[in-house]
Amino acid sequence: MDKRICVLEDNEDIREIIGFILEDEHYKVKY
Q1: Number of domains present in the structure of the chain
Q2: How far from 16 is each of 2, 12, 20, CA to CA, in Å?
Q3: How many alpha carbons lie under 13 Å from residue 6 in its C-beta half-sphere?
Q4: What is the 3-state secondary structure (H, E, C) of 1-31?
Q5: Handedness of CA 5, 9, 14, 20 (dihedral sign)
């Protein structure tokens, strides 16, 4: 995985924000 993704996995709030920005479909694809 990308190092950035590993960091995001430790920050659920950030994951949710990014998921919201990228829309649900993109969120599911990346994570």
Answers
A1: 1
A2: 18, 6, 6
A3: 3
A4: CCHHHHHHHCCHHHHHHHHHHHHHHHHHHHC
A5: positive
Measure CA of the first residue to CA of the last residue in the chain; give whole Å.
10
Domain that holds residue 25: 1-31
Q: Which amino acid is at 15?
A: R
Asked if residue 5 lies in contact with residue 30, where contact means CB atoms within 8 angstroms, the answer is: yes
pTM of the model: 0.30
Q: How far apart, in whole angstroms, are the C-alpha atoms of residue 20 and residue 25?
A: 10
* Residue-wise pLDDT tens digits, 1-31: 555 555 655 667 777 777 677 666 655 555 4
